[in-house]
Hints:
This protein has 389 residues and is α/β, with parallel strands linked by helices. It is built from 16 helices and eleven strands. The strands form two sheets. The chain has a seven-stranded parallel sheet, sandwiched between helices. A four-stranded mixed sheet has the order 9-8-10-11, covered by helices on one side. Helix 4 runs parallel beside helix 5 (113-121), helix 11 runs parallel beside helix 13 (312-323) and helix 13 packs parallel to helix 15 (351-362). The chain is globular and about 55 Å long.
Amino acid sequence: MFDTKMTVKKNIAILGSTGSIGTQTLDVIRANPDAFAVEVLTGNGNADLLIKQAIEFDPNTVVVADESKYQYVKDALSSHDIKVFGGNKAITEVVQMDNIDIVLAAIVGYAGLESTLSAINAGKQIALANKETLVVAGDIVTALAKQKGVNLYPVDSEHSAIFQCLVGEFHNPIEKIYLTASGGPFRGKDSAFLSSVKKEQALKHPNWEMGAKITIDSASLMNKGLEVIEAKWLFGLKPEQIDVIVHPQSIVHSLVQFTDGSMKAQMGLPDMKLPIQYAIGYPDRMKSDFPRFDFMKYPHLTFEQADTKTFRNLALAFDAMNKGGNAPCVLNAANEIAVAAFLKDKIGFLQMSDVVEKSLQTVSHIAKPSYEDYVETDKETRRVAIALI
Ligand code: NDP
Ligand code: MG
C-alpha cells in the first residue's frame, strides 16, 4: 500500500499571533512545517514578539494594530522581505490577499469582528477563536459565511468538541448539546467570598492558561455565557437546546445528544493546541505528540449544576440570548468594559455583573439590528458602562 494522499500546504493568516491562541497556533505550525505556511501575522502592543515571530516564520505580511509601534516593527524587519503595515484597517485589508487559504481569528473581543467579516467577505475559510464575533453579530456573520461558502471551524475547545462529535452526523438532527464548564477558580464559593476577591486570584485558572480577558470571563462564568451564544450560531440551535454542565476536571470537552437519546462526547487533556490543530487541519487528524490521557490519573470525572445565582453572568447571558437582537452585543460590550475595569482594580468581582445587568436594562433594544446598529450599540453600551463605573 502506498499513501495516495497529497499534502497541500495551507497558507494561513494568524490574527492575534502574539496572544495565547496565536502563539499556540504557531507551536502547531512549527511542529507541522509541511502542512502550513504562514502568510500573515498580526499583533497589537507586543511588537517585540511580533518581530520575533516574523523572523522565524517569514510571512508575506505583518500588521501591528497599534500604529505607534509601526515604525519600530518596520525598522526591525527592514532587512527581511516582509511587508509591514500599521493599524486595524490594514488587518481588514490584508486578510483578503489572494494567497491566504485560512484565517485564524484570535484577536480578543469586539476588536476582532471587522477583520473576521472582511475575511469571510473574501471567501476565506475561518478558524474561529474570537467568540465575541458571534456573540455580537452572529446572525450577520453566519449569514455572510453561508452566502460566501465559508466554513467557520471552531477553535474554542467546547465547540471543537461538538464539531468533532458531529463529523459524520451532519444529516442527523441534534436534540441538545451540553457545554462543559470547569467552574473556574471560584467554583463552590459564595457571594461573600467573591465580593473581596482580587484580580490575582481570578487570573489563576485551575486547568487552562489563557489571555487575561478570557481568564477573568472564566472565573465569572461569563465565558460560558458567551460560549452558549457562540454555540447557538455555530450549530444553528434554539436557546432551549443548549445546556451547561460544570465538569471540574475539563476532560470531557462537551457533548451532543441526538434524537435517539444517544450522546457523544469528545475527551482529552485540556490543551488548546488540539482544537487549534483540528480547526486548521480539518478534515485530517494530524499526528501530534501532545501528552495522552491516563485514566488512572483521573479515576473520577464529576458533573454538577452551575450556580447561576452566585455567578449571575451566566444567567444574564442566557437572558440576552433569549431576548436576541442587539442584547448579546450589549452584554459583550458591557462585559469588556467591566473586565477592563476589574483588571485595573476599579470595580470588584461581583460589580462586573452589576455593570452588565444595568447596561442591558439601559441600552435600547433593537430586534433586528443591521451591522451599523451593532456598531452603534457597541459604542453606546461602552458609554453607558463607563458611566456606571
Ligand atoms: P490574548 O489576550 O492572549 O491575545 C489577544 C491577541 O489579540 C493578541 O495578539 C493581541 O495583541 C491582539 N489584540 C488585542 N487587542 C487588539 C486590538 N484592539 N486590535 C488588534 N489586535 C488586538 O487572548 P487569547 O489568545 O486568550 O484569546 C483570543 C481569542 O480567543 C478571544 O476571543 C478568546 O475568547 C478566544 N479563546 C481563547 C482561548 C484560550 O485558551 N486562550 C480558548 C478559547 C477561545 P498583543 O498581545 O500584541 O497586544
Ligand atoms: Mg472554551
